């Protein structure tokens, strides 16, 4: 009997499809706990400023479509979200209904943390419940094609500055609570290794790393915070900055609001020139990374495609 196609599931965080979705989306993120009305209004305003919705679902679907075309008929690509529709479980149920028996999950976050990628892994395994053979790519921030893709974006972005501007390159990623460090979580180290690889590839003599988009909780979050880094560098006389959100691959609220609105506003206050790299989104360079991850993982597991 011929082998069935292998399901490839791209997993992302999720986001509201319209402003009415913001409150239930936040409730899902908070595990069913209600969100203060003031915070709901604040988050709704952020989405209003970036078009009234999150573009994450459409962008992840575009990534899945591009990956499906690259992989060919032996695979079927799907999208599942951690905190909004289509939920990971909803998509796994669809995969099961379609009769597929093997699924490879890739989290669209290149660097591993038990709190982030580990949470996706748990949701995927809970959803498959032994009925579908499951494999997950846990990390890919050191993939040579990923480093090359970000390198290309950095080089492109640096052309936006005048030759006489000494650009301070600040690599960023989503902050997580500091408590992850107690268990030796590799997240910060993996991020800095990726940043160093890109910096070396570009030929940067000087660069910085900072975190962004910390959650609205009282506990300590990983730092330094990117805005504070900008302030310190501006105070030392630097007037040109390039933000490279190496921990993100898609445009969503952390890019379109936190960088394009908040940090650009800070740049105006500081009187400095700020640019950022263009997100990879569904660029062929990212699709090439994903294709290689799939083919390598499937070969290592010994799965035979249809």
Question: Which secondary structure elements does this structure contain, and how are they paired or packed?
Answer:
Elements: E1 6-12, H1 22-29, H2 37-49, H3 56-71, E2 75-81, H4 88-97, E3 102-107, H5 117-128, E4 133-137, H6 144-158, E5 167-174, H7 187-202, E6 208-212, H8 226-235, E7 240-244, H9 253-256, H10 258-270, E8 273-276, H11 284-301
Parallel strand pairs: 1-2, 1-3, 3-4, 5-6, 5-7, 7-8
Please provide a written account of the structure:
The chain has two domains: 6-140 and 283-301, 3-Layer(aba) Sandwich (Rossmann fold); 144-276, 3-Layer(aba) Sandwich (Rossmann fold). Helices cover 44% and strands 15% of the residues. The protein is built from eleven helices and eight strands. The strands form two sheets. It has a four-stranded parallel sheet, with helices on both faces.
